[in-house]
Amino acid sequence: MARISGIELPLNKNLAVGLSYVYGIGKTTAMAIIGAAGLDASKKIKDLSDAEVAKIQKIINENYKVEGDKRREVQGNIKQLMEIGCYRGIRHRKGLPVRGQRTRTNARTRKGKKKTVMASKKEAPKKG
Q1: What percent of the chain has pLDDT over 70?
Q2: What is the pLDDT of residue 123?
Q3: In this structure, are 54 and 76 located in the same domain?
Q4: Which residues of the chain have pLDDT under 70?
Q5: Cβ atoms of 15 and 29 closer than 8 Å
Q6: What b/e readout covers 56-80, taking b as 16+ CB neighbours within 10 angstroms?
Q7: Residues 49 and 101 in one domain
């Protein structure tokens, strides 16, 4: 069972794909880690020895922020944007799309479920 940075890696995946299950490691970073460890990227995770897993873990611990540290860093960056009151920070605070997407339609992921706003009807004058 390959466990790296507290994450159980899927056994049937290639090494390059399996490493990307760790938060903060994408395809490019995974390839760099594999190269530094001197392993084959097409090797399955279930075929790794304990020494190879330890080698990968050591490289990650020394050179990369992953999982909790990376999540804290990203949240800190967002909090800083909100505190300084820049445009991106305001969009985060309001729960709107941050990267220039349209909001007239779509944007439901950020805005949440539709809230229908009804215009109030004027009452007809009473006949008398």
Answers
A1: 98
A2: 72
A3: no
A4: 1, 124, 128
A5: no
A6: bbebbeeebebbeebeeeeeeeeee
A7: no
Q: What is the CA 97 to chain-centroid distance, rounded?
A: 15
Find out whether 6 and 66 touch, Cβ atoms under 8 Å. no
> Do 31 and 79 lie in a common domain?
no
Q: What are phi and psi of 65, to 5 degrees?
A: -95, 125
Instruction: Determine the pLDDT at residue 122.
Output: 72
Which residue among 17, 39, 63 closes a domain? 63
pLDDT digits (tens, 9 = 90+) for 65-86: 999 999 999 999 999 999 999 9
User: ∠ CA 64-70-73 to the nearest 5 degrees?
Assistant: 120
Domain that holds residue 22: 3-63
